[in-house]
Amino acid sequence: MRVLAVDPGLTRCGIGVVDGVPGRRLSLVEVGVIRTPSSDPTPRRLVAIEDEMRLWFERHRPEAIAIERVFADTNVSTVVGTAQVTGVVMLLAERRGLPVTMHTPTEVKAAVSGSGRADKAQVTAMVTRLLGLSTPPRPADAADALALAICHVWRGSVQHRLAEAAAAHGTKPSGIPSRAPRRGAAGSVRAVPAGSRATTVRPNPGAPRP
């Protein structure tokens, strides 16, 4: 299964793509952060995020989309901006017929570290270990996106089996795609210099894809 996961935000939007199935080694495809200047009007920032996000969809052709579910807090402007970016990602996914799943931060922490109360340092350490990275992904938004992708790979497989069982009994499936996951060995990773809007980490060119 190839999952594209998004940690939504207007100023920094974490995005990561991971290949894998439960019980096998996970593989990093690409991770990065889409940035927009706070001085720009919100519509322009959303267009910039949409343009960059579309390139990720086209470049990696994910089979499922995972988005962090954000809860309201005292910073209303942050919540509104996050919700707006979430809407952009959902729109891009729906136009491509891709299933979208929301995961809470607690679900992600529990899936990756075994504890829903894990701090960011613990989550980052586990992401680094699970993906076999030589250095921890930075910034935190990138690590959060990868943790979200890992969570969905593991949870999504279970949902897929439930969907197949539901289909066999004539009930409505969950929408998890039935395409076979890509196979192959994971490649090493390298840092890519920051661009105008995104900083990414990708496997070495020519490395086989799972």
Description:
It is found in: Cytoplasm. Mg(2+) 1 binds at residues 7, 141. The protein has 210 residues and is of the alpha/beta class. 42% of the residues lie in helices and 20% in strands. The protein is built from five helices and seven strands, in the order βββαβαβαααββ. Strand 4, helix 2 (76-95) and strand 5 (100-103) form a beta-alpha-beta unit.
Short description:
The chain has 210 residues and is α/β, with parallel strands linked by helices.
Estimate the global geometry from the Cα principal axes. globular
* CATH H level, superfamily name: Ribonuclease H-like superfamily/Ribonuclease H
Number of individual domains: 1
Main β-sheet: number of strands, strand sense, barrel status? Answer: 7 strands, mixed
The parts where pLDDT drops under 50 for at least 5 residues are: 173-196, 204-208
Q: What class would the helix/strand composition place it in?
A: alpha/beta
Tally of contiguous helical segments: 5
Mean pLDDT: 82
* Neighbour order of strands in the largest sheet: 5-4-1-2-3-7-6
How many E-type strands?
Answer: 7
State the name of the first-level CATH class.
Alpha Beta
Order of helices and strands: EEEHEHEHHHEE
CA-to-CA gap between the ends?
9 Å
Q: Within the CATH hierarchy, at the fold level, what is the topology?
A: Nucleotidyltransferase, domain 5
Strand proportion, as a percent range, falls in 15-25%
The CATH architecture term is 2-Layer Sandwich
User: Approximately how much helix is present in the residues?
Assistant: 40-55%
Radius of gyration, CA atoms, in whole angstroms: 17 Å
InterPro entries: RNaseH-like_sf, RNaseH_sf, X-over_junc_endoDNase_Mg_BS, X-over_junc_endoDNase_RuvC
Protein name: Crossover junction endodeoxyribonuclease RuvC
Binding site for Mg(2+) 1: 7, 141
EC number: 3.1.21.10
